[in-house]
Amino acid sequence: MATIQKLSNSFSGALRTFSYWIANGTVGLPLLEGIDYSCIFEEPSALEQAYAIFANVIEMDEVGIVCNAKYAEMRAAQYIRSYVDSSYKVEPEFEDWEIDLY
């Protein structure tokens, strides 16, 4: 019989916080400070990609404690910035595993 596992409280909190910051316009500061990225709410695939990057990059230790929430947020913010500002160059460039949609 398979054991059902739930996401950790730490991951749940990191995802909730990321969602709150996206919704209120404060994700990815200072990278997105003063940048209106509200257009991603009108393009579902752009918002989907930002969440995919956050989820693909985030790491947890063996007991489910998130180790790199700010880094995962920053990578998602880099994507958002590149989406709304075609002159912005993501550094380092995204690797395939960071942008995969599962």
Automatic annotation (TrEMBL):
Residue span, DUF7677 domain: 6-102
Name of this protein: DUF7677 domain-containing protein
Source species of the chain: Paenibacillus macquariensis
Domain of life according to the entry: Bacteria
One Pfam assignment: DUF7677
Organism lineage: Bacteria, Bacillati, Bacillota, Bacilli, Bacillales
InterPro entries on file: DUF7677
